[in-house]
Amino acid sequence: MASPGVHADLSCRPGSQIQDRVAALLAERETLTPLADADAPGKDAGGGPQQARLRLELAEALRCQGQLQARLKAAEEELETLRGRSKGDVKALRVLTGERNSLLTKVRDRDEELRGKSKLVEVRCSGAAPSPRSS
What we know:
The protein has about 140 residues and is an all-alpha fold. It has one domain. Helix content is about 80%, strand content about 0%. Helix 2 packs antiparallel against helix 3 (about 50-125). The chain is rod-shaped. The protein starts with a helix and ends in a 9-residue tail after the last helix.
């Protein structure tokens, strides 16, 4: 029969990790072995089933802590990567905004220039105003 501490918190087990499972099974075996040895005359149970259960819970807590620390380290590394990417994105955004503003100014200037040329063509074609070259 499996001890409740072995499978009590599966939320901290992100994947199938052989070493963690082996450690849990060994701790479970230590829990069950003193129970069988306690029935045998002349053998010391080594602290009894409570101590073995505490060892099992300690092993589970240490394993879970190691996994949480690994997840924390991975999250911190990803955060640093995203911060670096964010800084690059902010810089690219500034460059693109400047380029956009410059192009908008050029488009407005060109639009105004074309309107002026269009009016000039209309005036010359209609003959309403004399050309500036003829005096």
